[in-house]
Amino acid sequence: MDYFYIATKSQNPWVKYRPLAVGDLASTSFPNPFFNYFLSSNIPPIPVNVNGHLTDYTRMQWLYGLKTGSLTTKCSVQDIAAVGQELAMHFCKYTRELIWEAVRVEYYPKKPSRQKCLWVSQGEESLYYWISQLGLGDNQTVFRVELDGVIHEASDEHLMNDDIPYDIALEKAHKYWSGEIVDPLKKEILFEGNMRILEHIL
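Above: the chain's sequence. Below: its structure in token form.
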């Protein structure tokens, strides 16, 4: 079955590489765009009116100000909750990536690193599942690709997406890196090596 790579049309500030095109040969390297997001400050600040002047607050500063009463806002409860939930998920994912990499390095060193790899899908059914999951809409572009390197098939069901005890996180990480897959449709494929762009699909 063919392999496919889903990319964004727009160039996010944390992506260091030029957009891919048919005929290109892409090589994986550290950090990949996914992990580089966590290495740089990419969460937009919130402008706050302080004595008539707009001042940028980090989301943590903003939430703390609302908590202590030093700030007020006209935002709805839902909007405030969204800021808090997005910030919590950011640190949840960042923590997860550090734990998952530590487990990989110690126990599964030959597996592709999530901090360096590219994610690909195999077969059209898997491709359209991930298209629906990523939800990029008109911002997506899809290529058929040829791989030369190392792959690892894992289940995203074993990824940490909530506050869980450390020992449970380690258990999930081992299930992920050992390739325990519950639903084949939901598997993700990590790839390290060289990827040739063969054809523009979508």
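The longest helix spans residues 77-107.
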